[in-house]
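re the bet — no i am not wrong, look at it urself. input seq straight from the record:
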Amino acid sequence: MLKGKTALVTGSTSGIGLATARALASDGANIMLNGFGEAAAIEKERAGLEKEFGIKALYSPADMSKPAEIADMIRLTEKSFGSLDVLVNNAGIQHVERPEALFG
């Protein structure tokens, strides 16, 4: 049971990261979401986590390629929730290109 604990999941605005954040929230953890995406969609997910699971959820747009932004996100998490107990490093980069571009 994670009630009273705090989890930060990078890359959690969609896909596997969001599913991970939801699973942690369902077990009672407060959540710091992180990632890229449309502001309205991210806010909908953030508010939905709070409503569905009765936890607190915040969002940080920190870019994982910028160490200063990562440090600020961790400080914000600790300041907002009092601790950071679970860290899931899920963020990644996706490169999408047509196969013809790769093979001539």
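see?? The mean pLDDT is 94. told u. also The helical segments are 15-26, 39-53, 67-81, 99-103. so pay up
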